[in-house]
Amino acid sequence: MATVHERFPVAPEALWQALPHGVDAVKGQAPYYDAAAGYVTFSTKIGWLSYGQTVTVKVERTTEGSGLAIQTSLKFGFVDWGEGKRIARNFIAAVGVAVGHTPAA
User: Fold this and answer.
1) Which pTM was predicted?
2) Is the pLDDT of residue 105 over 70?
3) Sheet holding 39-43, edge to edge
4) On the CB side of 21, how many CA atoms lie within 13 Å of its CA?
């Protein structure tokens, strides 16, 4: 399980509109968007090198604008060997491109 937070100097509404770019970037499947609660949840595929992950991304209002709280968890298994953080970082990078902001590395 991994939890990653990232802040963006944009309005939460703009960040919300960019979430599909993040889902596409990590090849998320069956995304469920809950605008009222401000989150999206989706899964990644099971493959030769991955058991797949369940990912939940919440858009939060911050003093600087908005932020993402990304939580990943394995569908099966105990150790993800950093896969959850890689998924979160790729998601953040894609959303950053969509809103015109490059997050710090």
Assistant:
1) 0.91
2) no
3) 2-8, 65-74, 53-62, 39-43, 29-34
4) 14
